[in-house]
């Protein structure tokens, strides 16, 4: 709903600082500096506060600088920097609280190393650094982090660059996962000529390229490898498969087995594995033998049942609003019947009509009859007071076209008033406008203003201002923008397919 007021949520047990991925050669950071890993159970609150205050002294300055030392140096610095994907699985924020599999596992790691070091007051702290997957290895090599803990598969190509711990998981199969829009598959040969969306930074991509080589040798059509956004994690893509937005993807079997408990429309194909015998491990630089020894000791004692068996993060996902099946037959009819209305309405404002339509689907599933308990109306879920505002001034929003017009005009107003800035990319301008549609422009402006003090880039939504939003607002606005972005990708796929079909007919 437009201009929704949201509560601010915080945690008295956490002090958090974030350092951005600066656009310079030597400061490519996005750091979450925490004091939540002061793991002295039952400690005095005064001692905890003292440690929290210390986070903003020398340690804070140290985290700003690239560093490539080994374990002894980390102990002397009182910090270990952990590179991790920002995702629903490994690491995410919810109203100021840090959560996720890597976070939970690292709490155990921090507790054990501080016990071994007999650190009771000044402890070795963890610095979480959320990055895109394609940045995990480069940032590790450049000294941005000390450990990369993002479910990395050990491959010969990666071993040439970095070192790995003992495997956290072994015998991992990279399997095909299909959804309601998938073609029938009975063997890997059925993948010939089909399309699979995959991140180029993943081991899946490497193994699909090898499979394509075997298809070429056998005279079969290659799999169409469609490079996917590095902003999207495996579970984001799986969510889209579950909703029928994508037909299929490749996923590590343990992760797929977990998510099959959440997403009921997916089908796992353990017999259709593009790679078997995989090993997943933590990674670090080759010049870190002492760190390797410490990590391997921890992995040997904690690997079994931690990553998969306990399913630590089931409780995090119960209230998440996942994307819906925007490409189902009935939903495609809605899309096709309204696309010209959105296109016609958005054109005078220079707004991407596909993105506007994705917002409409998130708000109402393109249902003009929808009414909210707060009084929001129609496809764009506008409040009458918003439509009457002089900056919008569109009457009769109870009717379809005026409703869409008012929503698009309001988005345009948000964009022009708050985010038309040459320092912000066009996509990010619209992402900020969309976030403002949900949380209000004043709230988003405040979050952007806080980003630099937390070391984040105020001109980027993903992995930057969305983290500030997750901390202060909670997951609603983050999920709202994420869902709209996924619908946007899905609608683009429809248009691309229709354009290809039309070209073939002519």
TrEMBL record:
Membrane topology summary: Peripheral membrane protein
GO CC field: cell outer membrane
Cellular localization per UniProt: Cell outer membrane
Keyword Cytoplasm listed: no
Solute-binding protein family 3/N-terminal domain boundaries: 79-320
PANTHER family per the UniProt record, alphabetical: MEMBRANE-BOUND LYTIC MUREIN TRANSGLYCOSYLASE F
Stated name of the protein: Lytic transglycosylase F
Lineage per the UniProt record: Bacteria, Pseudomonadati, Nitrospirota, Nitrospiria, Nitrospirales
